[in-house]
């Protein structure tokens, strides 16, 4: 091994270490930014080392690529709203899968006679996983962005049909590697295999509804990591293998945590067709027809301002209204009055894990005031008041009913508090498509209106309290 190659290997090792450390620091909101920066530096080192080692581009070409990529990233970071982050992640997953597929495709086209060797099998896996990730991610993006219906798109025998397509794709891949000795050109079989993979990505995602898209995005993130790792094996790049494996494992762990947060299996998410705006067997004409107790800003301020403890439960509605800064002001004012204020974060609140944490961090809410479901659920029975802002299914008592659509889903036990205040536009259902009995309880007050405007009124009302 010459000196230049030794330096490249050292850079790869440093890059891998930075990836691991960066991923570790992503576990906490307090260190997530630093972790993301470390991972970005790791990727920069890996790209430069690879390009220099392969002598693909000149330094000017590297600089141009960095500038263009940085501009695209800066625009995306500054212009994409918090509510659209899952769509952005979906796009990133799609491009990541597509890039990995292109690496595998290029290698196969350059050496179509590779045969059923480990290298050939790896090329096929990289192509298939990358193709499925590419089209699947953009279907997920289209659903979340409402460019197509967010409801499950199903047809009779769909799972069986998908299974047949999957088996067919595998057979095409094997034939392209020379297994079976078909009298068809290897290139033709390979392009048919690629087309099948792209179609399979679409078929896998269309039957999954909007409520389950965050789980799908996370799973596709795992796929993109696996595709990158496969691409690393194809070209013999160790840092790509390691980073891809890390992303794949992290995405899978996150997917399983989200499934646990909804008390559903991954198979149920992938094949159940759940997640549309109308739950099966639910009479939507009855939703929101029962009487509720209404309250205005002054009444809510009185309920919150003269108690000892308040727990705030943020949800997707808070993100949509971009009311997090006003919410922090309410929390600060209550604390000035001697009220203990905490924030309860459900693992699947919002559109993706950590959505509420990032939203509140953006408003400078202290990290030590954020509590996960397991940390705070036992405290609700000793809490004077709960303020729910734009959350629905994550605090729906129907989850305790064995016959409910969301039966068994872990929820925040907000109904056990002395007083519950719900800030919401209307009595419309959440993603699960069912009514929320919490809205109609005797100790629940409904504060209707746009979260940002209502929160501004609440800030004023709390300030005016004696």
Structure description:
The chain has 466 residues and is an alpha/beta fold. It folds into three domains: 1-79; 84-271, no CATH class; 284-463, Rossmann fold (3-Layer(aba) Sandwich). 57% of the residues lie in helices and 7% in strands. It is built from 16 helices and six strands. Strands 3-2-1-4-5-6 form a six-stranded parallel β-sheet. Helix 14 (355-362) links the parallel strand 2 and strand 3 (370-372). Helix 1 packs antiparallel against helix 2 (32-54). It is globular and about 80 Å long. It starts with a helix and ends with a helix. The model is unreliable at 274-278 (pLDDT under 50).
Brief write-up:
The chain has 466 residues and is an alpha/beta fold. Helices cover 57% and strands 7% of the residues. It has 16 helices and 6 strands.
Compressed to H and E, one letter per element, the order equals: HHHHHHHHHHHEHHEHEHEEEH
How many distinct helices?
A: 16
**Order of strands, widest sheet:** 3-2-1-4-5-6
How many domains? The number is 3
Estimate the global geometry from the Cα principal axes: globular
In percent, how helical is the residue content?
55-70%
Number of strands: 6
Structural class: alpha/beta
Entry keywords:
single chain, 466 residues, alpha/beta, Rossmann fold, 3 domains, six-stranded parallel sheet, 6 strands, globular
């Amino acid at each position: 091994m010459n000196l230049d190659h030794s330096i490249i290997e050292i850079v790869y090792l440093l890059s891998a270490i930075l990836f691991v450390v960066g991923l570790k620091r992503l576990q906490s909101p307090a260190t997530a930014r630093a972790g993301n920066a470390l991972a970005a530096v790791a990727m920069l080192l890996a790209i430069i080392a690879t390009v220099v080692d392969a002598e693909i581009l000149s330094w000017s070409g590297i600089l141009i690529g960095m500038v263009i990529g940085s501009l695209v990233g800066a625009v995306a970071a500054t212009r994409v709203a918090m509510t659209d982050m899952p769509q952005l992640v979906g796009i990133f997953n799609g491009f990541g899968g597509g890039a990995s597929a292109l690496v595998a495709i290029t290698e196969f086209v350059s050496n179509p006679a590779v045969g059923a060797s480990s290298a050939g099998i790896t090329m096929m896996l990289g192509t298939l996983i990358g193709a499925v990730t590419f089209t699947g991610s953009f279907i997920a993006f289209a659903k979340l962005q409402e460019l197509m219906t967010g409801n499950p798109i199903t047809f009779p025998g769909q799972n069986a049909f998908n299974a047949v397509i999957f088996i067919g794709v595998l057979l095409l891949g094997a034939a392209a590697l020379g297994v079976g000795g078909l009298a068809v050109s290897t290139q033709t079989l390979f392009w048919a295999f690629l087309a099948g993979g792209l179609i399979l990505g679409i078929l896998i995602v269309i039957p999954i509804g909007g409520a389950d898209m965050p789980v799908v995005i996370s799973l596709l993130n795992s796929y993109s990591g696996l595709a990158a790792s496969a691409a690393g094996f194809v070209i013999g790049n160790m840092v790509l293998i390691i980073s891809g494996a890390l992303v794949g494992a992290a995405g899978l762990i996150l997917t399983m945590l989200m499934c646990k947060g909804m008390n559903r299996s991954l198979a149920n998410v992938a094949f159940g067709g759940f997640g549309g705006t109308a739950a099966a067997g639910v009479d939507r004409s009855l939703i929101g027809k029962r009487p509720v107790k209404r309250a205005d800003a002054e009444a809510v301020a009185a309920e919150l301002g003269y108690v000892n403890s308040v727990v705030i439960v943020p949800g997707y509605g808070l993100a949509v209204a971009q009311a997090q800064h006003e919410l922090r002001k309410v929390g600060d004012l209550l604390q000035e009055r001697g009220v203990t204020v905490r924030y309860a974060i459900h693992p699947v609140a919002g559109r993706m894990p950590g959505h509420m944490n990032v939203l509140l961090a953006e408003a400078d809410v202290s990290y030590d005031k954020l509590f996960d479901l397991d940390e705070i659920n036992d405290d609700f029975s000793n809490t004077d008041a709960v303020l729910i802002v734009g959350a629905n299914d994550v605090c729906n008592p129907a989850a305790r009913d064995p016959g409910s659509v969301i039966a068994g889903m872990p929820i925040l036990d907000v109904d056990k508090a002395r007083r519950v205040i719900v800030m919401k536009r209307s009595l419309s259902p959440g993603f699960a498509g069912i009514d929320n009995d919490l809205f109609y309880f005797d100790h629940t007050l409904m504060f209707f209106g746009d979260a940002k405007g209502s929160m501004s009124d609440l800030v004023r009302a709390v300030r005016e309290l004696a």
